[in-house]
Each structure stands twice: as structure tokens, then as C-alpha cells.
Amino acid sequence: MTQYTNEAVIRCDGIWKIFGDRSAQAMKAVVEDGLSKDEIRRRYDCIVGVRDASFEVGRGEIFCIMGLSGSGKSTLIRHINRLIEPSAGSVVIEGRNVGEMGAKELRALRAEKIGMVFQNMALMPHRTVSENVVFSLEVRGIDEATRRKVAQQAIDAVELTGWERKYPDELSGGMQQRVGLARAIAADPTILLMDEPFSALDPLIRRQLQDTFMKLSAELHKTTVFITHDLDEAIRIGDRIAIMKDGILVQVGTPEQIVTEPADDYVADFVAGISKLDLVTAARVMQPLEQYRQTNGATDPANWPVAHPDDKLNALVDLAVTSDNPILVRADGADLGVVTKSALLRGIQGRQDVGIETGGRI
Amino acid sequence: MAEDEAFNWLSPFASIDLDIDGRTDGIKQWAIANRDTIQPIKSFFDELISLIDTTLQSVPPTIMLIIVVLLAWQAAGRRVAVLVAACLLALGLLAPGAWELAMTTLAIVISAVLLCVVIGLPLGILAGKSDGFEAAIRPVLDTMQTIPAFVYLVPVVMLVGIGDVSGVIVTIIFAIAPLVRLTSLGIRGVNSSVVEAARAFGATPRQIMFKVELPLATPTILAGLNQTIMLALSMVVIASMISVKGLGNEVLRAMGRLDAGKAIVGGLGIVLLAIVLDRITQGLGRSGRERGHRHWWQSGPVGLILRLTGRKSEKPQ
Known about the structure:
The complex is a heterodimer of chains A (about 350) and B (about 325).
Chain A: E1 8-19, H1 23-33, H2 37-44, E2 47-58, E3 62-66, H3 73-80, E4 88-93, E5 96-97, H4 103-112, E6 114-117, H5 129-133, H6 135-139, H7 144-157, H8 173-186, E7 191-195, H9 203-220, E8 223-228, H10 231-237, E9 240-245, E10 248-253, H11 255-260, H12 265-271, H13 282-285, E11 287-288, H14 289-296, E12 306-307, H15 313-320, E13 327-331, E14 334-339, H16 341-349
Chain B: H1 2-6, H2 20-24, H3 26-33, H4 35-58, H5 61-76, H6 78-94, H7 98-129, H8 131-146, H9 149-160, H10 164-175, H11 177-188, H12 192-200, H13 205-234, H14 236-240, H15 247-256, H16 260-285, H17 300-308
Helix pairs in contact in B: 3-9, 4-7, 5-6, 5-16, 6-16, 7-8, 7-10, 7-11, 7-13, 7-16, 8-11, 9-10, 10-13, 11-13, 12-13, 13-16, 15-16
């Protein structure tokens, strides 16, 4: 996970997007009467794409928006660089309201501050790899020598050295998306918008590209909004995850929060199949030492295996198999709690041990 | 009311006269009244056409043949070049004067097609961008393509008089439609996600047009150009009725004298010219990479010269 500060680079406030010929009227009706999605469709023949979405993304943070197709996540991400105009709400990037920018200012923002990667790559078939990569520099009128240098750096960064003069159709899908990634980072933007960048790739290639992306991300510290329909990917990549359903952000939180404290049944369904091993921490499954002593009598934890509250279940399993004793959770020299074998097993299942009722709720 | 009595419900049209032909005949009066303003425009086009004509005529046939064959080789490959050479040889051998007549026809066609591109390309781009304009221009194009040429032959002659300029105008009216249509189709067919990507990276609408949409629409636009050239060629006989010289005129005169042999010579000349122009422009439409080359200068005579002079056209990958 990358480190990020609390300074909000992207702030979205109450974004609504209603598609249709009578979207303005529908929007007004929503504000005044609070119509539901179905009512809007029936009365105004309009489709609600995004419904009152608000979130902030801190500098250097990777913010994943996860949802199934049709949930409005691709629509939402296009509001950030104003490829789509919101029906209501505002987007503020580094203190400047994107909605109030003139055409020229907006183009400068897109070319210099924001890099975007698309699900279907959207490379230009008539341009070579390096011509594609430096497109944003070319439209800004930057000289050829600089462009060539920047192209080479970006292509090296995505491990495509030697393919500069090829055309996109000579490359495999995974390589094409590397070009897409290189194009997004070429202008050294502050923000990366990734619209399901790896969804169209087969699992092995997807894994490789995720690794490349995370390596780049750790080096470059870009503020990233990452869209995916794959929760595993979101958990692997995201510092925070937003779950989107029918245009609404259902829940925003860290991967661990999403998995251990799903806000509703929809999210719970989603996370049910997710492995908790690398997400849930000892702090979540432990019971306080006092409580353990009350039920099991005074015991001496001297030769118990010791774990840190932030250790993941996976590490706890490794400790548990070395000893018959429960695991002692200790931080800064203080004994905080105990993880019994049954609590550990239930934690892996994603359920709470019936014997205890404390620690984190699972 | 005597007219009412003559009115018959079963056959109403015979008794109604809106005098449409009489009113539209006013075009003629207008044309005659505005002749002075038309003249400078006419003389400009006249000069353009005769410039192209004299250029084509001044090149000796052998040299011209070599130039066109090399052009075909570059644009469409070696096989097409052989075909083009054969067609041009046959054209020259048709009759002693056939080559000169063909060059005159070619000059008219080139002028008409040039003007078609100048007018049709922007119209096509506009139609590709705006649904309203597309809907508005479609019936106009349909009319231009289907209305019998003799209908507009008369007003055009009234306006600019007989001669090459009228011939070119009539040809444009007939031949411009496919270029506009296919340019619009090409622009509409550009992958919208590529255009979106260009927008997302800060391109201006103008840059999107010239760096993304037009290059990607080029094969379709060239197909339209090819059709326009073919239609322009098919107009040469009709154009010869308003005193346009060339192969068409031969056919027309042969028709008047019932000289079947001469008509066939003229007709074959037009066909051979059509094959040459068609194959060259079709070759342009296919991208070089489809034929296995990376850049146009790596193939054809240019590629050969570059290789022979020992200059590596590209550094090895």
C-alpha cells in the first residue's frame, strides 16, 4: 500500500448524472420530490447514471471504484476530467472547480494533469507506439526532441523497450494496454484515471499488468482512481474501495472495512467469496486478555506465540501451527488480547466465534 | 365557373395547372440577367481546366505512360502497374488521335474531381459531424444523383454558356454525391473510444479532426473518391453535348453518323481510362501495411531507388 496524505486532490460533491432528453426536468424533480430511479424512468424516460456520489481522493492514494457493469462507475470516472458533464454536483481538482473551467483551461488540465487508461485501450491504430504514447504532448505543441525522450522513458517504464516503432495491431492485448499505461503516464500527470484497464485481459496477463502498475504506482505516487468489476483486483490494488450499485456509492472504506464490515447485504454478498487471509488482522479476531482469563482461568502466556495486532490471519495461521497454545497479541510491550484457534478458524470463514463477543465484529 | 365544370374527381391532375415549369423557367431569365457576375468565376475555372489540359498534352505520350505506370506501381503495387501499362498501351493503339483525346478527357475529369474534393470533403465532414446536416443534405444528394443530366444541362449552359466549364459543373453535380456520403460514413465510423481518448488527452476539436478522425476515415473517403472518379468518367459523353472535347465527343459524333467503329473506339478509350484510374485509386485506399509494408516509401519505385542508393530507409529494429 502506498502512503498518502489527507490532502484531497480530487473532491466530488453530490454528483448526479441523468441521461435522456428530459434530464434537466428529471433532475429538478429529483431535487424537489426525491424521485426513485424507477419513477424517473417512468415519468421522464430518463436513465440515472450516477446518483449523489461524493468522495475524496487524497494525494498519492489509489481509490478503487468497484461495481458490476451498468452500475455507473465508468460514467462517474468520466466526470473527473469532464468527459461527461454532471447533471448536478461539482468536481474539484486541487482546489479548482472543473465544471467552471473554460475549454482551453480544461484541455490544459486533461493534457497536463490527468492521464487516462481505457478498458478497450483506445489506441490510435494509425500511429506507432511512441506516437500514441506522446499524443498529449503533441497536442500541446511540445517539440519533437522532448517528445522522443519522454516516449522512450514511458515505454521503458512499462517494459516495452524495442517496440516503439510498431503499430498497435502488431501488439498483443497485454502489450497494447501497456502502451495505454505509458500514454497515461507520459505527460507525468498528477492524476491517473483507470477505467477497467485490465478487465479485457486474460488472468495471467492481468496479474502481470497489475504488478507493473503497482510497481509504477509505488515509484510515481500518482493519485489514482481505479475502476474495476473485480473485487480481488480492488483489494489487491486499492488503498480505499468504493462499492457502487445502481449509480449509488453503497460503501466507501479500506479493503478490510469492506470485507469485515459490509454496509448492506449487497456488499456482504460481494465479499462472501473473498479470502480473508490477507485482509483481516489479529485485532479483529482477538478477544481481550481479561475476558479470556475470565472464561479460561488465569493462564501464563509466557510460551505462547506472539503476534502484532496488524498481523494478518495468514501470519496467525503460521504461528498457530507451531504451538498448541492460543496466540498472544502484543503491541509496544503491552499484552492486548488472545486469538484462540476457534476464533482464528471462524475469522478465516469470515464469521465470528460464538464463544466470544468482542474485538472487531466480523 | 367554367373551370370547375371541367374538374373531374377521378382524373383531377389534368385540370390543375400550378405552372411550375413556367415559374422555374425564371432561372433562365435570372441566369441571363446575372451573366456579368458569372463571367470572372467562369474564366477562373476555364484557366484551371486549360492549365491541366495543356500540362497533360505537353508531356510526350511515352513519358506520360511511364509516369502513370510508376504512379500506379507506387500506389497499388507491381501487378496493378503491369495492368495499367497494358491499358495505356491499348489506349494509345486504339486510334492515332486517341491519346490526345484521352488526355483532354483526363483533364476534364481531374478538374471535376479536384473541385468535387474541394466542395465535397468539407460537406462530408459536416454531414459526419451533424445529424441535422446529414438529414438535410441526403435528399439533395439523392436528387443530384438521380435527376436526368439533361434537366440541369440547360440551366447550366444558360448560366455559363457551352464549353469545358459547364461540362465540369455538370460532372460535379452528378459525381459529387458518393464522396460526400462516404466521407460522412467514414467520419461516423471512427471508433468513438479513440476519439474519447483524444479528448481525454486534451486535443482540440480541430486536432481530433486532423489527427484522429480524418486519418482513420481515409480508406472510406478514398473509396468515395474512387466512386466519384468513376461517375465523372461516365459523364463525359453527356458533357460532350455541351461542347466538351475529348473521348466523349468522339462517341457523340459517331452516334450522329451511325459510325459504330468510331463509337467503339471512343467507348473503349473511356473504359480503359476508367480501369487505369480505378485501379490506382483503389490501391491508394488500401493501406500500405495491409500489403505488408510499413511505410509507403518502402515499396514501389521509391523504395527501389532508396534501396539502390544504399540508404537504409529505416534503421534496423
